[in-house]
Batch of 2 targets.
Target 1
Amino acid sequence: MTNPLDQLVAAYDESNPYSFDNEIMLSWYAHRISLLIGVVPKLLELGIGHGIASSTLSKQADSHTIIEGSETIIDRFKKQFPECKSNIIHSYFEDYLPDNDTLFDVIIMGFVLEHVDDPHVILTKYKRYLSPKGKLFIAVPNADVLNRRLGFIMGILDDLKMLSPNDVALGHQRFYNIDSICQEIQRAGLLVTAKEGIYLKPFTSEQMRSLTLNRSVYHALCQVGIDYPDLCCGILIEACADRTT
C-alpha cells in the first residue's frame, strides 16, 4: 500500500518555489532552539521534513530520536546527511511509544501541527513523554504574517487563513496565528513559557528574491522577528507541562 506521506515528498525538494524561505526558517528555528537548550541528555523530534533542522538539532543531545512516517523521507535524509547518527524511527506520531517508558528533556514539533489530523491528540500524547523539567518547542506557520496581511488589505488574498496551493502540496491542513496556537497548546494542559517570531518577511517570496539581498539582511530579519511573532512567517513557542492540571 502506498504511504500517503510519500506522495508529498516532491514538494520538499529544491524545485519548490518557497525552498529558499524554508531554508531560512528551518535553519533559524533550529539555531534558536540550540541556543536556548544547549546540549541535553535526551531529545525527541517529530518529523524530518526538509532535514535541515534535524541535522542541526542532532548535535544538541546525547541521544537524539526522530519519529518520521515516510520511509522515502528517511532514506533521503540519510543520503543528504550521512554523518548524522540520530536514532530514526519509522512510525506515525500517533503510533509511537518510547522504549522502557523513556522521558525526554526536550521534545520538538517543528512545523508539525499544521499537518496532523488532530493536533490535540498529538500534544496531549507527547506531553506525557516530557521529563519533570522538560521543555516542548512548537513551530508553526503564521496566517497573520506581514506579507499576507498586506495581500489581504490589497485585495489579493480573500482570507488570511486560506491555504495556498503550496500549503496543500506540503500537506498542510490548517493555519495558526499567535492566539490560536497558544490556545491549542493551553487546551492540551501545557503552559506557554515563551513565544517568538521566525523570519520577518515584508514581501512575497518572489519579490524578496528579486531584491538579491545579502545573506546578512535575512539574518537581521530573523533577529528582529524574534520580538514580533504576530508578524513573522513562523511562530516558535516554548511550553512545559502544567503540573497543576
Target 2
Amino acid sequence: MQVAASATKVLAVPVTALYSRPDGTTFVTTVSEHDKTADVTVTTGQIAGGWVEIRDPELAEGVRVVVGEQTAG
C-alpha cells in the first residue's frame, strides 16, 4: 500500500493495531495460524488515512495483527 506522499510501497497496519508500553516502545500483537499471539516491537514511519507504516524485519505482508482489542472491566 502507498502511504502519504511516498512513491514506494510500504508495510502498514491500521493505527488501532498499535500499542505502547510504559517505556515508550511501540508494538503490535500478531496472531499465528494456530491462534497464538505474540507482541512484536516495531518502529513506525509515516501515518496517513488511519494507516501507519511499519519498519520491522520480523513482520511481513499477510501477518495477522490484533486491531482495537477491548477488555471488559
